[in-house]
Amino acid sequence: MLSRPKPGESEADLLRFQNQFLAARASPAVKIVKKADKRKGKEQSTDAERPPLQDSKDVVMLDGFPDSLPALTPAPPKKSKVKSASVHFEDEDPEERLESHDRHITAVFSKIIERDTSAVAVTMPVPTGDPFPRTFHRSEIKSEVQLGSGKKSIFAQKMAAKRAAEKAATTPSAAEFVEVRSAAPDALDPVGSMGETLLPSSRDDKDDDFLTSQHPCLITGEGLGSQKSEQEAQAIHKENLEKLRSMSEEEILQEQARLLAQLDPSLVAFLKSRHGNNEGSKKELKMELNRPEEFVESLPVAQHGVKSSLSMQESGLEEHERKEESMKVEIMDDDLPVKPRKEWIHMDNVEFEKLEWMKDLPSPRQKKTKKGMQARFSLKGELIPADADLPTHLGLHHHGEEAERAGYSLQELFHLSRSQVTQQRTLALQVLGRIVQRARAGEFASSLKGSVLRLLLDAGFLFLLRFSLDDTVENVMAASVGALHALLVSLDDEKYLDWTFSWYQGMAAFPFVPNNEEEEEEEEEELNGTEKSQNKKLKDENKPDPDVARYDVVKGLLKTRIQHRLRYILEVVRPVPSVVLDILHILTHIARHSSEACSQLLDCPRLIETIVREFLPTQWDPKVAEPGFLLTSLHGVACASAMKFIRVLASGGRNATARLLNKFEMKSRLSRFIAEEPLDVPLPREEATRLSTESFRLWAVAAGYGQACDLYSDLYPVLVRILQSLPELLSGKSPVVELSVQRAAAVVTLLTHVTQTAGYAAELQAKLSSNNSEDSEPIPPPPVVWSQVSGLQPFLETSLKKILQQLSQTETWQTLQPLTTTCVIFLGVYYSAYSQQPSVNPVDCLEELERLTSEVLQPLLSQPAIDSMWDLLRPCSALCNPLSCSPAPESVSSIASLSCTGGKPPLSLVGSKSPFPFLTALLFLINNITHIHKGLTSKYSSVLGFRGLKDYLHQSWQSGPPSVTPSSAWILRHEYHLQYFVLALAQRMAGTCPDSTQHASLHHCVAMALLSRLLPGSEHLAHEVLLDLAFNPEFLPEGKAGGPEAADFSDILHLGTSAKLAQPGSAAAFLPKVTRGALLRESYQNLPSIRSCYLSHFVHLQPTLTRSQASYQGQNYLIQSMLLPEVRGPILPSDWPFFPLISLYNKVTNAETRGAILNSLPLDLINTVTWNLQWVLLLETWRSKILQSIPTAAKLARLMCVFLTGSDLFLETPIHRYTAALLSVYCQPKALDSLNLDAPLPGLASFHDLYISLLEQFEGVSFGDPLFGVFVLLPLQKRFSVHLRLSVFGEHTNILRALGVPLQQFPVPLERYTSPPEDNLNLLRLYFRTLVTGALRHAWCPVLYVVAVAHVNSFIFSQESTAQETDAARKSMLRKTWLLVDENLKKHLLYYRLVNAESPLGFDLYEQLPPMRLREERVLPSAWKHILLCLEEMELICDSSAISAKFLEISH
Prior knowledge:
The chain is mainly alpha-helical. It contains 67 helices and two strands. Strand 1 and strand 2 form a beta hairpin. Helix 46 runs antiparallel to helix 47.
């Protein structure tokens, strides 16, 4: 390390120290950097410009520090005028450079130039009477303040005005100049006349003198520094004018475009701005007339084409100038509220654009545009019309865009919801919630294009609410809860769900799961139900929250752990009652989503505890019930909404119910709220009644699982007291009579499920006693036995009799209908369980049923009011009126809804006048009675004879069902219950009442339609219909009443069809001809076997069938959940009659995919296909309308599975016969007209792929079977895709040798193949090639031979004008046709006339060529060209003898 210099050391020592330091190459401690000169604006020495350090120089620098401080904000770099002006060259002499920059006084004096004043006029002072010259004051000068005055001071403006006035005294005034302009309008017309003056073709002496007298606009000559500067500028100006006169107009425009492209746009803008800034002086007026740009722009209108190319470059600038000018004029013309005065300081130059905000808004007007206008909403969520003129004090104009329009757009509300001001966030969320509420009510359906809800959800509205829920401000949280409530909850949906709770099977409901989830089910086809649910759960867990919420909003909210946030708000924030109710409604909607959602709510820490503790307490302040009491907090007060949430949560599953009853002590709450009458509960009357009703419903749900029945014995006196008070409801004196009826209906529903549970007590006790150790864990019997419920029937039957007496009073009946319905359902359940009790005497049971029939039901059925109920079935039916269950206008697929917003009309299935609930309950009771006492069946024969019922059934099965949505599924399920009970009653009467068979066909059609419509959860009903109705010979009276004979007679007479009904033969052996009547007779006799076949193929539905049976048969101990399976569609597909055949095809295909080969098919598979074909033949003949919903193409595709299954299955005699019979049905004209192979087919990914498989199968195993050949030929009709025909004639030409379907056995008219003429050139070439090469012959494939000849003949003799390539191909094909060796083919192609299926050839021939075709012969080339053509066509003429013969023919 070097030491510091010491005292006494000389400079030589310091130099020696420096040399040592440099030799050691050590890094210096300090570096000297020369800072930039701030006065020059740019650093003189940067890292790039600084030369590298050398050892010979002593340089000190500081590393790591910049030369200048960094800028805090990005700004354009400053440019130094000094540095840019100092340009140095390497060969420049330094002395000359110093001389050029010399600032000495002598240099300055040497460059003085005296101004020439010889031409300046000398004015003498004006004599005045004052002793001294009068001083000048700027107030004496009048001048107009101009907007474009720039940065000139007021004094400078006055002086400029003074000089202008003095100059105007010696020169012509502006007014005189204006007069000159008016005297020569043609010369000054800015549009066209001036340009015409300057053009050579239209110049005259007068205009020429005018132009030469003008001064230049841009060139002033001031920079020349000479006495004759103005003269020089004028000379330049004249030279420019002469140059312009010598140029044509095109050259002028081209030169102008070139200049504008080269000049800086800012310079062009500056030059143009001089016109507007110098408007008051004479010189600037002259300059304006001589501007080159204006000169060119004022050319005649004829040059618009050239001008348009120029305007594209200047459009932006000119448009901006026009907008500014129009704005200034508009502002100046408008009346400002505060008018500026000249006396005000700094207001002599009024800047109107800065005062624009003070003027009134223009009146809003609706723009006539096809794109529509932006929707704006008021603070109440109402849509404001575009032309509404609302005052500004309403606070609807605080936005920038469209300032004149009142209201706020969705985008502005979204922006406001993220404001830092709490009140603004709260207001925005409140307004958005009101908009959503009105949108769901359908208020915007007719006014707005698109869906508001879908737009909001796509914009992230859901997560905006979720983020706002996490806000720390209570008002923002309350607004978010309200908006989320408006988005998810529909109180009308909840109202109608409560209304149907006491209907037959009304406790069970479909989950609120959207049915449009984006899942790839192809990958899950081979998974069972458990694996599918687990796989689906894993997929949802791995997806981001927005992706999940896109197809399921509730599932997306649960992923964000919304239940934890709502629990925090309820427990910690403790909001106002309205927010608490909204949260409870939201939780109720989430609980209706699925069993998984119920589990997540139950597992949420302290959520259920908080709700039960705070909103279902056992005691609270009695002041709540006082009239006029203002409830400021709902915490600590019992709430009916909380009890309803617990009830809906219990519907999620029996395990959830058990946890609620035991862990969360809901049993004690039930006892507390049930034991006390609503009048005694310290709550408002309506709230107390609702709380009691929800308590009974919760108990009913628990009893539906066989739980909480131990409370029955404890609360039995309370239940009896309620039953004794039921007749009091008839008086209607209660102020809350509707709520009281709902409460009474809930009590009867509870007793119904308790009775069902008690009915199986003896059976479970017997199973428990006889249980072996090897069996599974036994189910313990319930704590209630039959003897405890046997005394309920007299109370309810007595009440029912009294209520039925009010049947004629419409209003009273409509009010009491829910209670009447539940009473009838109770009697049906009671007698069903009563007949199965071992302690009951069967005779006593039968006598009870006879008494009930004679005393109650028969008098009821004879009343006129019941007849009118049957007449109301059709107006209230959802099947007959599909629009009644259509989705709401603003329904979105990601939020399940019942579309009940606004209420349902009275004449609807769930309306107030609907007869469906009572009639369904009545039919349920009658079916149970006739099932127990078959002798009473005839007593109820009048039920099926009601005209209203028959009309309803007839229309319901013929109308197509509505699409399956959450709203339609909920409604249709109840309607299907009524139809099933009608069919079940008809089935019981079929064997006992001969008169009932007259409607057997109608009932069978209804049963077949019902099979393809029943929804998940009703598998038991579908099984019963298949077992007892669909294949019941009693419901096919045609089999006994001459149906087969009628079919044969129809075939003989060809009734209703002109098609040939001949059936193709078989390649296996000669089959004796069997009529369709014989096949129908055989099929009718095999109905029991057919039924067994179908039941065995629906065995995959067994797990769901077991769960459904437990629900419909009242086995409460087996019910796992009140939530039905998710609805994806009906249980059975619409083409279920083909299901065994499809199942067999899939089985064989899957086996072949895995590498296995099925060489032989067992006998049962042959029988399965036969029975399947027999059933389809029966339906197509006697129930053809049932299968109308299946497209004809889909039916043919299903029948093709017969040929694709196995190798020779189609050759089996019964299969071949029934397939041929079905083919004849599908080849009738109506069926062929409806055949569409180009449309997507249900259950089929691609018909083209299926057809290719059929072709490959035909090549391998067809044996030339004609029936198989017809199925191959059917898709080749002209109106179907050309790709099918290209596949045959291009890739599978080998089948042409085996496709020998005789013309007499071909059931399709040949005109469908030959008309219209083929226009595909590739296919025509393939037709011609297969004909001339011999691949297609009449002996091998007569049908396609006729088709190919017809199309080739039509093409080669076509007279239509076509493309050059097509015409060349046509002529070439015609030449080759004349040179064919095969005379028969040549004759067929040239002499073809028309298709004729009766002819042996399949077509007729001309005896001689028509004249038009003879003219086509003249286009043939000369003989030598024929020879060359023959040489080219060696592939057509193979042997030498044929060639010689052809040469001889040509020579002749």
